[in-house]
Write a structure and sequence with these properties.
about 130 residues, mainly alpha, 5 helices, Vps55/LEPROT, Vacuolar protein sorting 55, transmembrane helix, membrane, transmembrane
Length: about 130
């Protein structure tokens, strides 16, 4: 059971992640690294939407999980894009290496916090 200490800890880590991404843009005076925030905020949405759309049936265990797998694929795509986008911008000399590293690390902290929040506060389904 997660409590108030978990919420405070996760919000602190989320704030550090956003701070790193914002500082990567502000310190190096190049705001292309802020695109990482959009990818990490959008990343959990396909997994959530496809999980709701799958509509598991209590009577049929053999229902296909293609929709859930597609949602996981899109979520993985956005997470990899959050890492690959700053790397690509750094490789193209659009941003500095420090900005790319801060953006990647901050983005991973943001996404990790979102995943941790969903794991800690997931409702148990009892039948």
């Amino acid at each position: 059971m997660a409590g108030i200490k978990t919420i405070i800890g996760l919000s602190f880590i989320l704030a550090i992640g956003f701070l790193l991404v914002i500082l990567s843009a502000a310190l190096f005076k190049n705001y292309l690294t802020l695109l990482v925030v959009a990818t990490y905020v959008i990343a959990p949405l396909p997994n959530w939407i496809c999980g709701r759309a799958a509509n598991p049936d209590d009577f049929m265990e053999s229902s296909g999980s293609g929709v859930v797998d597609f949602g996981r694929f899109l979520t993985g795509f956005f997470v990899v894009m959050g890492i690959a986008l700053p790397t690509l911008l750094w490789h193209a000399n659009s941003i500095d290496g420090g900005a790319a590293a801060m953006s990647i690390f901050g983005g991973l902290l943001i996404y990790g916090t979102i995943i941790s929040f969903t794991l800690f506060f997931q409702e148990d389904q009892e039948f």
